[in-house]
Design a protein that fits this description.
CATH architecture: 3-Layer(aba) Sandwich
Mean pLDDT: 86
Number of domains: 1
Radius of gyration: 19 Å
Helix content: 25-40%
Distance between the termini: 36 Å
Shape: globular
Number of strands: 10
Strand content: 15-25%
Largest sheet: 6 strands, mixed
CATH topology: Rossmann fold
CATH class: Alpha Beta
Order of helices and strands: EEEHEEHEHHHHHEHEHEEHH
Strand order of the largest sheet: 6-7-8-3-9-10
CATH superfamily: P-loop containing nucleotide triphosphate hydrolases
Number of helices: 11
């Protein structure tokens, strides 16, 4: 079995100007198989942090150490190689709508087969078989030949997960995967991500706005406020004082979820088809 790597962030900083400080001295580690939920108010730097890790946004200072490399210091060619090992899952799904589900999943192999082979849809047989297996794993095997624009939001997100896994990544970066989904589907997607990370021992960071959903499905929560880490601990440690430090003063004891509805949602079997 391939040994997975720990993600180490050291002093990661992104300042656009002296007055616009998106991230300041962010440091934490993510172990293999660990899913870290990244929470905080809008503008706290959650998406910037994810984008700095794979250098879609260039950090100002700091280190991102993964697979024995500091990603911040890599040349462009070496960074392209390193990005093969980093799977991204987006809120907007980022699918090619006119292509089939299978073709979208196989696009995750672009970094390995090259543009022209993918353009001609000449993927190696082993990649095709692996894609079928991934679609089976995310519950979409019967939709393999459907166009992406014929799917529901939850199904599209599952295609995005399968495409990221087609890269055979060693790290997953996930940006608001449930923001556009109904509560039931959001829980199914979070459960799927959690199970896959455990199965493949993938370290993962999920930028998520739903605190209760994060507490239910991640092993650890990192809270950002104005670009700085103000909380790093277990979901059970995320008390009213911690929430106030992250989001500001609020009556955190007030529940916004109907308990009967919540019980019904959680009890829904994972394999049930998405609406």
């Amino acid at each position: 079995m391939e040994v997975m790597s720990t993600l180490i962030l050291k002093g990661l900083t992104k300042h656009y100007s002296a007055s616009d400080k998106a991230l300041t001295d962010v440091s934490f580690t993510v172990e293999p198989g660990e899913v870290v939920g990244l929470i905080g108010p809008s503008g706290a730097g959650k998406s910037t942090l994810i984008r700095c890790i794979n250098r879609l946004t260039e950090p100002t200072n700091g280190q991102v150490i993964f697979s024995d490399k500091d990603l911040v210091q890599l040349s462009k060619s070496n960074l392209r190689q390193a990005r093969r090992e980093i799977g991204m899952i987006f809120q907007e799904y980022a699918l090619i709508e006119r292509l089939t589900v299978m073709e979208n999943v196989l696009s995750g192999r672009l970094g390995y087969v090259g543009f022209w082979r993918s353009f001609a849809r000449r993927y190696p047989e082993q990649d095709v078989q692996a894609a079928y297996a991934l679609l089976d794993r995310v519950g979409l095997l019967e939709h393999a030949n459907k166009r992406a624009d014929a799917l529901s939001g939850g199904q599209r997100q599952r295609v995005g997960i399968a495409r990221a896994l087609a890269q055979q990544p060693k790290l997953l970066l996930i940006d608001e995967p449930t923001a556009a989904l109904d509560p039931r589907t959001a829980r199914q997607i979070m459960r799927l991500i959690s199970e896959i990370c455990e199965e493949h021992q993938l370290p993962a960071i999920i930028n998520i706005h739903d605190v209760e959903l994060a507490k239910q499905f991640v092993q650890r929560i990192v809270g950002l406020q104005a670009g700085e880490v103000v909380f790093d601990g277990k979901p059970s440690e995320l008390n009213e004082d911690a929430l106030t430090k992250i989001y500001g003063q609020e009556d955190w004891s007030a529940s916004t979820t109907d308990s009967d509805e919540e019980e019904e949602i959680i009890a829904a079997p994972f394999t049930e088809a998405l609406a």
